TrEMBL record:
InterPro entries per UniProt: Ig-like_dom (IPR007110), Ig-like_dom_sf (IPR036179), Ig-like_fold (IPR013783)
Residue span(s) of domain Ig-like: 12-116
Superkingdom in the source lineage: Eukaryota
Protein name: Ig-like domain-containing protein
Length: 121
């Protein structure tokens, strides 16, 4: 799994996209992104929504968009490479001190990477 790619400094009120990749995965890949607030509260976002959190906070879940795509054709062994994006609009009041992580579940194995940004301007 590659490192999460994105700007180290986020701009308050400006759309942000983070990128994450995983290699040699079977075709039943699941991806989710976690946002951990400074107070320790965690929110999970995936292509299918956020589960219970989405029902409790429908407006918040629509502010975060997750996409996944296959970046290579299946190899002879059926494995592919995937990329995922996580788009949202950061704000100093909600995201300062937060961290983001990307999690791929492929072939029954979980891979996760974290991304710590430096500041929100």
């Amino acid at each position: 799994m590659g490192d999460i790619q994105g700007p180290p400094v986020w701009i308050d009120g400006e759309k942000l996209t983070l990128y994450c990749t995983a290699s040699s995965c079977p075709q039943d890949v699941k991806v989710s992104w976690m946002l951990k607030a400074q107070d320790g509260t965690e929110s999970e976002f995936s292509e299918a929504g956020t589960g219970e959190a989405e029902e409790e906070q429908p407006l918040i879940s629509r502010e975060y968009i997750v996409s996944k795509e296959k970046t290579t054709r299946p190899q002879k062994n059926g494995l592919c490479d995937y990329s995922s994006t996580f788009c949202f609009i950061p704000s100093t009041s909600r995201h300062l001190g937060s961290s983001v992580s990307c999690k791929f579940v492929c072939g029954g194995k979980t891979q996760e990477k974290a991304f710590q940004f430096k500041a929100i301007q």
